[in-house]
Design goal:
6-stranded mixed beta sheet, Aldehyde Dehydrogenase, Chain A, domain 2, binds nicotinamide-adenine-dinucleotide, Aldehyde Dehydrogenase, Chain A, domain 1, alpha/beta
Length: 503
């Protein structure tokens, strides 16, 4: 069941069965330069294509995904162990939506943009969004198709060529991304997938013109340090310890359902999983009762028939170790296990509900990335907010209340990149809005125009309109010029004027 290391091949295992399912050749770090050089050769041709032309490949890719959905789902589930329903919704469906969204909207977001100068009224100004060149996408294993295509697609639409380095645990989903572009007739080497360990990813940072990294905080910092050596732009989508707040006026049934699904889907291995829950005193007992009841009814196992399980295994031994370590630490410090708390065969860990938890425990502070729901009683919305913000992560948060005003007020005070009110995890499916983290959860934003523009280098062009022989502030300097500029300063910025004419 362990991922074995060999110098030339990755061995891929099905975490649900322990069976070895494939061997995949590795690209060693010193071979990465050659792949980047190939991508550079395609770049000038791809950059010159119109948005409509590029979009045609995206629509064809979407058709390919629809036609190959069974195979894609099979591949994802075989190397992650997740239920097919989740691969269909969060990977296949999401990717189809993403392809259509960027095929349709990229031109609007990236076309040359006229700017009206605040000061220099005698100039025409416009901004061009130029591609970076070759973009490296380094992706994790928890959503191996979604989090690969999620950056590959906007990088391509922005005019870049792309090299994808999938996680060493899920190379097969990464290879599907390369194959899909090949089979829809995209130019050779437009999208290449290089499989390997972290060192292959590190070599990508040494050669590419921009990096989109999704993964852990610890690796993200290494990538940022390496990228700093070359001053290339880097998008960092990192981990989270997402809080859920349930206030006393919440719709209890919806909040409990959201909590169980938000914490346990993909066996809790979602960057935006509900990782800790704060519930106001008056509804605490009833909320916990409902959550435990719902967890009891979940079916865990290795899926043989479509839809027969709700939770799969953890994807790798290191995740199992983290879950066990966090639960052990919590119990040693006084937490109680209400349900679960036991390791089953292989990589399966029972969905677990913990109470009597507090912030001295790792389970409330470090990313667990497993099927665990720690619930803490709080006395007020303010206490819940303070505890939610007591974290070095800041990816997402959810809060449940019927009081819209209070909900909006708390959302504003939450120190996270994303907030859901009376919902959870939904932010990721809203392609029009920025998605990303604050604090140690990341830098930069996916989705919308933000997701595209980060793969460009804006170039500002200023064009003189009147063709005077010289500008009033060019050489030679003289006293008259200084007086004239000083008078202009007083005229433009004198008190009262600003409010009247908003200068
Ligand atoms: P990881 O950091 O171990 O690995 C991520 C990728 O980085 C892999 O492809 C790996 O091979 C590569 N890598 C490792 N060392 C490298 C190096 N020195 N230089 C360049 N690349 C290197 O993360 P993981 O375990 O694969 O993924 C789980 C983490 O990802 C969790 O923390 C999760 O929260 C986070 N995540 C974040 C988001 C988000 O959108 N914010 C989404 C999914 C997952």
């Amino acid at each position: 069941m362990k991922l074995l290391t060999s110098t030339k091949h990755l061995e891929v295992f099905n975490p649900a069965t322990g069976q070895k399912i494939a061997e995949v050749p590795i690209t060693l770090p010193d071979e990465v330069g050659t792949a980047v050089a190939r991508a550079r050769q395609v770049f000038p041709m791809w950059r010159e294509l119109s948005f409509a032309h590029r979009a045609r490949y995206l629509y064809a890719a979407r058709d390919w995904i629809v036609d190959h959905q069974e195979e894609i789902i099979e591949t994802i589930c075989a190397e992650t162990g997740k239920p097919r329903t989740e691969a269909l919704i969060a990977e296949v469906f999401y990717c189809c939506d993403l392809l259509g969204y960027y095929a349709k909207n990229s031109e609007r977001y990236l076309k040359d943009e006229a700017r009206s100068p605040h000061l220099l009224k005698n100039k025409r100004v416009y901004v061009l969004y130029k591609p970076l060149g070759v973009v490296g996408v380094i992706s994790p294993w928890n959503y191996p198709f979604t989090l690969a295509l999620g950056d590959v697609v906007p990088a391509l639409m922005a005019g870049n060529t792309v090299i994808l380095k999938p996680s060493e645990y899920t190379p097969l989903s990464g290879l599907l991304v390369e194959r899909l572009f090949r089979e829809v007739g995209a130019p050779p080497y437009l999208v290449q997938t290089l499989c390997g360990y972290g060192e292959t990813g590190a070599a990508l940072v040494d050669h590419c013109d921009g990096i989109a990294f999704t993964g852990s905080v610890i690796t993200g910092k290494k990538v940022a340090e390496r990228a700093a050596q070359r001053l290339i732009p880097v998008l960092l989508e990192l981990g989270g310890k997402d809080p859920m707040i349930v206030l006393k006026d919440a719709d209890l049934e919806r909040a409990a359902n959201a909590c169980v699904w938000g914490a346990l889907s993909n066996a809790g291995q979602i960057c935006m999983s509900v990782e800790r829950v704060y519930v106001e005193g008056p509804i605490y007992d009833e909320f916990v009762r409902r959550v435990v009841e719902k967890v009891k009814s979940l079916r865990q196992g290795s899926e043989k028939r479509l839809g027969e399980i709700d939770i799969g295994p953890l994807t790798m031994p290191k995740q199992l170790e983290t879950v066990e370590r966090h639960i052990r630490d919590a119990v040693e410090k006084g937490a109680q296990i209400l349900i679960g708390g036991t390791r089953k065969d292989g990589l399966f860990y029972e969905p677990t509900v913990l109470v009597d938890v507090d912030h001295s425990m790792q389970i409330m502070r470090e990313e667990t990335f497993g099927p665990v729901i720690p619930v803490m009683r709080v006395d007020s919305a303010q206490e819940a907010l303070m505890l939610a913000n007591d974290s070095h992560y800041g990816l997402a948060a959810s809060l449940f209340t019927k009081n819209r005003e209070l909900g909006a007020q708390l959302a504003r005070q939450l120190e996270t990149g994303n907030v859901c009110i009376n919902d959870c995890i939904a932010n990721f499916a809203v392609l029009e809005a920025p998605y990303g983290g604050v604090k140690e959860s990341g830098l930069g934003r996916r989705h919308g125009e933000w997701g595209l523009r980060q793969f460009t280098s804006p170039q500002t062009v200023v064009v003189d309109r009147f063709g005077l022989k010289r500008e009033p502030f060019w050489y030679p300097y003289n006293e008259r010029m200084v007086h004239w500029i000083s008078r202009a300063l007083r005229l433009l910025y004198r008190r009262g004027w600003r409010r009247k004419f908003s200068v």
